[in-house]
Structures are given as C-alpha cells and as structure tokens.
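assembly run, all chains below
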Amino acid sequence: NAGVTQTPKFRILKIGQSMTLQCAQDMNHNYMYWYRQDPGMGLKLIYYSVGAGITDKGEVPNGYNVSRSTTEDFPLRLELAAPSQTSVYFCASKGWLTNTGELFFGEGSRLTVL
Amino acid sequence: KNEVEQSPQNLTAQEGEFITINCSYSVGISALHWLQQHPGGGIVSLFMLSSGKKKHGRLIATINIQEKHSSLHITASHPRDSAVYICAVRSGTSSGSARQLTFGSGTQLTVLP
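ok done. output:
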C-alpha cells in the first residue's frame, strides 16, 4: 500500500511565486489534514477536510488554500509565497470508522522561500 | 487551548538503556497520541491512549489523566530507536476528528551503539 503520498519532497520558491503541494491517499480515508512543522515547534494545522467537497481552516490558514474534489486528493496551494512559509509540510489522513484514531502521514515536503 | 510540554527536549542514551520521555498537558483531554518522526522526516503513529497503559514490542506508553501526564518508555534501547518522539493531545470530544490535536515540540532521542 502506498498510504499517503506527498509531492514534491523539496522545493525552493522565490518570494511571490505560487505552487501546489500534492497529497494523495489510497486508503479511502475521509479525513485529510495539512500541517506545517517549524524548527523547535509542534505541528500546526493549516487546513483539514472531512470528505470530498468539504474543507475548513485550521490554526494557521493565512496564505494557503485547499480543495478536495475527490476522496483521494487534497492539494495545498500557496499563493504569493513569503519567507514565513518556509517550513516542512505534512499531509495526513484518518479513516471514518477507525477507533484507534491513528493518523497516517506523508513523508513531508520541505519548502524554502527565498 | 491546550499547552503540551515534552521533556527532555534532547536525550542521548547508550544502547540497551531504559528510556523515558515525558509529556504534560494543561487541559483535560479525550486522548493522547505518541508519534515517531524518523531521521528522514516521515512520521508514524505509535500509540493512542485515553487511559492506563499500552505496550507494543519494546515500547510502553502510560497516561495519568488526573495528573495530566503521559510517559513513553523504551526498553533495551537500540540505535534504530533514534528519532524524534512527539506527543499530541486531543481536547475535543469527537472521536472522529483530529482537528483538535495539539502537538508537543518533540524529544530528539539518540541511542549510541
């Protein structure tokens, strides 16, 4: 099983550029999440989705947008990149019926904005 | 908002030693997660606890709800256990959502051969 797949793994952007981080899961999970991880800090929730067509803001949504047109895919769009968006981004998913609450994470995407 | 504190921030041990990593939180929770972040960056779930104790191989996780404290123990540590261990707490009552998770900043564990 592929699990949660994130691309790209690394990217360097110039200030003002835009890009999309891709996230796909093959476990038929309803819940999907985007987090950012800054050095010395805990993961912060950017956006989440409880199912296709439904998205909502997390703790740090400014500067980002998401969409959820299918169950499998949850891309994160950065518009007008800023140095403050330099971070490692993680996509995660969780099933609707699981009682364990286990989150499945992608391998992460390291983004640098110069 | 829940505050999650982990200690120590960094821990170096010799192979075979018994390891303890601690997690404290400030507000009542419905569940607590322990995660492992590999040196390459990938994150995997180790445990989810709402009470008592869970064991998986050489890993043991305990939680004391009254004291708002959890510990992750590693017995007979090995260099392959070197990783960042992250505690996360869920404050909401909805069992289906992880949006109320608050993450600690992690404990960097290095096990020397």
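Residues 14 and 114 of chain A are 5 Å apart (CA to CA).

Chain A touches chain B at residues 31, 33, 40-45, 48, 50, 56, 58, 88, 90, 92, 94, 96, 99-108, 110 (CB under 8 Å).

not gonna interpret more than that til we talk
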